[in-house]
Write a structure and sequence with these properties.
The chain is an alpha/beta fold. The protein is built from five helices and eight strands; from the N terminus they run αββββαβαβαββα.
Length: about 160
């Protein structure tokens, strides 16, 4: 529980406004293959040719809860474009993640990382932790902490990654 409290406090300490996505310097893109709350398998490789926002979160994480509506607004604003959000719930079960998604009216895939292997592979040490994968399948940007995903400068960076 102490580790969870530390993660939350650290995430709260990170400012959400005025921050820019950071260019990825973490090396090769980690593999990703997780089931969603309905048991459907999602592989990062299945989304090649699209920009993918991967977000690690938990229901108990206040900054995660605050950030989710902006991800949904971004998803809505990019409807019809080669873009997808994969929200990865860290260490919780399908019921908690599904109930949260329904309450927040989220309409993007909610994946489950119950054993936290994907969380470790992606070095998501702070929640929320986000990674933007380009259409080439390589991580282009990352962000640790909450951010307004629908902010014009953030949305613009994602749109510039999209194939023309």
């Amino acid at each position: 529980m102490k580790a969870a409290a530390f993660v939350v406090l650290l995430a709260l300490a990170l400012p959400a406004s005025g921050q820019a996505l950071k260019e990825w310097k973490g090396g090769a893109t980690p593999a990703l293959a997780l089931e969603d709350v309905d048991g459907k398998l999602h592989r990062l490789a299945d989304y090649k040719g699209k920009v993918v926002l991967i977000n690690f979160w938990a229901t108990w994480c206040a900054p995660c809860r605050e950030e989710m509506p902006s991800m949904q607004a971004l998803r809505d604003g990019l409807q019809g474009k080669p873009f997808v959000v994969l929200a990865i719930n860290v260490g919780e079960g399908s019921r908690a993640a599904r109930d949260f998604a329904e309450k927040m009216a989220l309409r993007f895939p909610i994946l489950l990382d119950r054993d936290m292997n994907a969380t470790r592979a992606w070095s998501a040490r702070v929640l929320p932790a986000s990674y933007v994968v380009g259409p080439d399948g390589k991580v282009a940007y990352s962000y640790l902490g909450a951010i307004d995903w629908n902010a014009p400068q953030v949305k613009g960076r994602l749109e510039r990654l999209m194939p023309k």
